[in-house]
Amino acid sequence: MWHAISTLLAETLDENTIVERRELPGGELHAAWYVRYGAHHIFVKSDAHELLQKFTDEADQLALLARSNTVRVPQVYGVGSGRESSFLLLEYLPPRPFDAHGAWRFGQQMARLHQWSEQPQFGLDFDNDLSTLPQPNAWQRRWSRFFCRTAHRLAIAVGGGKRAGVW
């Protein structure tokens, strides 16, 4: 896997080497790594080879969020696979405390995100996942109906004994 990651980074960023690599805590769904590649700080998510499409979908969805220019998302450096694993390479964003001001800013960004497009309805043209739960995104005329479905699924994940993992 690490050879494939180095090759993809060389093609995407520049010819360099991995200077530092350490596994990050909290990877309940996927293995998570911090990598320093020359001057670049990279976040690596990895899992079984069969999850390559999930990582590709996640990269596409992050690109969509980035185009909205409303919520800070990590830059996607690439998606790839080795013989037995697949991986997603992202810009590493160091964790910061989620204090009252951070929560307020995030709320403002989410509000701008949901006002971003001129769509007369709320939703997406495709479904995705909310942690480990399927997230249907069928178009809804009312924001409240669309949001309640999401809130309900999150409540199931947190209150139903399932973990809503970060990675």
From TrEMBL:
Protein name: Fructosamine kinase
A Pfam short name: Fructosamin_kin
Family in the record: Belongs to the fructosamine kinase family.
